[in-house]
Design a protein that fits this description.
By secondary structure, the protein is mainly beta. It has one domain. Helices cover 4% and strands 49% of the residues. It has two helices and 16 strands. It has a six-stranded antiparallel sheet, with no helix packed on it. The radius of gyration is 27 Å and the shape is elongated. This is TonB-dependent receptor-like beta-barrel domain-containing protein.
C-alpha cells in the first residue's frame, strides 16, 4: 500500500457519460460527457462535471511528479487483542469450547487530501447539498478538489471487534466427525470526530463498517467416511459444510 502511495502514476480515473452518437459501439472523445447536477442535464466534460475523478491534478493532468507526502511521524497501526477460551470434553471424543474475543485497532492509516502547497482539506470544504428523501439523511457537496494525499495516523479513532463463539467438536470416531460453531460478533468503527467527508457519518460512526460484518454465523462442517471392513481404506467419504450468517 505504501508503494502505491508514493507511485506518481499508480492510477488515474475519470468517470463520464458515454453516448454512442454514430452507433459504431466504439468510444471516442467526442462521445464523452459530464453531468450538471444542478441543471440535471448532460454537458461537455470538465473537472466540474465529471461523474467522478481521481489520481491526477486536473490543472496539470499529464504531470507524473510524485506529490503525495508521508507524515514523518507515520507508523503502523496498533492492534490489541485478548482471547479467552475454555474447552471441556462432555463425553468420549466429543467436546465443547467457549471463546471470547476482543480486538481493538488504533493509530489507523489516515490519508488526508492535500493541495500541492501542503494545504490539507478540512470539513469546511463540504457544504449541505440536499437531503436524500429515501433515507431522510443529508448529503454534502465538495467546494474544491484536493488531488494529493498526506499519509498519517488517526489519533483517537479506532476499530473494535468483539465476539462470543460456541464450538462443538467431535473427533473422527464411530465413522464420523464434526466441527460446528455459533458466532455472535460486533465490528464497529468509532470516528471520534476524525473525518473530513461528512457524508454518511451518521450511519458509519459506531455503525456497521464492513461488508463482511455479519452479527452472527452458524457453521456445521462434518465428515462421514463410508464403512468397509478396513476403516483405513473407506469406500467413499462424504464431506459436508453448512454456513449461515
Amino acid at each position: 500500500n505504501m508503494a502505491y502511495h508514493v507511485n506518481p502514476a499508480a492510477w488515474t480515473e475519470i468517470d463520464a457519460i458515454w453516448q454512442d452518437l454514430n452507433g459504431d459501439t466504439r468510444v471516442t472523445n467526442d462521445e464523452l460527457f459530464g453531468y450538471d447536477w444542478d441543471a440535471e442535464k448532460i454537458v461537455p466534460p470538465t473537472p466540474d462535471t465529471f461523474l467522478w475523478y481521481g489520481g491526477f491534478n486536473p490543472d496539470d493532468p499529464t504531470a507524473i511528479t510524485m506529490r503525495n507526502k508521508v507524515d514523518p511521524d507515520h507508523h503502523s497501526p496498533m492492534l490489541d487483542e485478548v482471547t479467552l477460551s475454555y474447552e471441556k470434553e462432555l463425553f468420549t471424543d466429543f467436546a465443547a469450547r467457549f471463546e471470547l474475543l476482543y480486538k481493538r485497532t488504533t493509530d489507523g492509516i489516515w490519508n488526508k487530501d492535500m493541495m500541492l502547497d501542503g494545504t490539507l482539506e478540512t470539513k469546511a470544504n463540504y457544504y449541505p447539498a440536499g437531503n436524500a428523501e429515501s433515507v431522510n439523511m443529508p448529503y454534502y457537496g465538495r467546494n474544491e478538489y484536493f488531488p494529493y494525499e498526506l499519509r498519517s495516523n488517526y489519533k483517537d479513532r479506532y476499530d473494535r471487534y468483539q465476539a462470543f463463539q460456541l464450538v462443538l467438536l467431535k473427533r473422527l470416531s464411530n465413522g464420523w466427525m464434526l466441527d460446528a460453531s455459533l458466532t455472535l460478533a460486533s465490528w464497529r468503527v468509532y470516528y471520534k470526530d476524525e473525518y473530513t467527508n461528512p457524508n454518511n457519518v451518521e450511519y458509519y460512526d459506531t455503525g456497521v463498517n464492513s461488508w463482511m460484518n455479519s452479527p452472527w454465523q452458524f457453521k456445521v462442517p462434518g465428515l462421514y467416511p463410508g464403512k468397509t471392513e478396513d476403516q483405513r481404506h473407506p469406500k467413499s467419504t462424504i464431506v459436508g459444510k453448512i454456513t449461515v450468517g
